[in-house]
Design brief:
It is a single chain. The chain is α+β, with helices and mostly antiparallel strands. The protein has helices spanning 14-20, 62-73; strands at 28-33, 36-41. Strands 1-2 form a two-stranded antiparallel ribbon.
């Protein structure tokens, strides 16, 4: 099982890297949601469909959503 070292580095198992198409030298993005970290290879379209399971609220404007996110990050 992977563990984080004292420099906050994690080694991802090779079979998971192959499955995700992540190779040495590739760049990736990481996201935190609901206490989970998700790693996505940085490539055009790599995260397409990533949030398809999340239902939006049409009553909330983009500006309201942005302001809520900014307020949460400062508290």
């Amino acid at each position: 099982m992977p563990r984080m070292n004292d420099r906050r580095q994690i080694t991802i198992p090779v079979n998971q890297c192959r499955e995700a198409g992540i190779w040495p030298g590739d760049e990736f993005r990481s996201f935190v949601a609901d206490g989970r970290i998700t790693i996505v290879r940085q490539a055009a379209g790599a995260a397409r469909g990533f949030l398809r399971h999340v239902a939006g609220d049409p009553a909330v404007s983009e500006e309201d959503s942005l302001q809520d996110a900014l307020n949460r990050s400062t508290h």
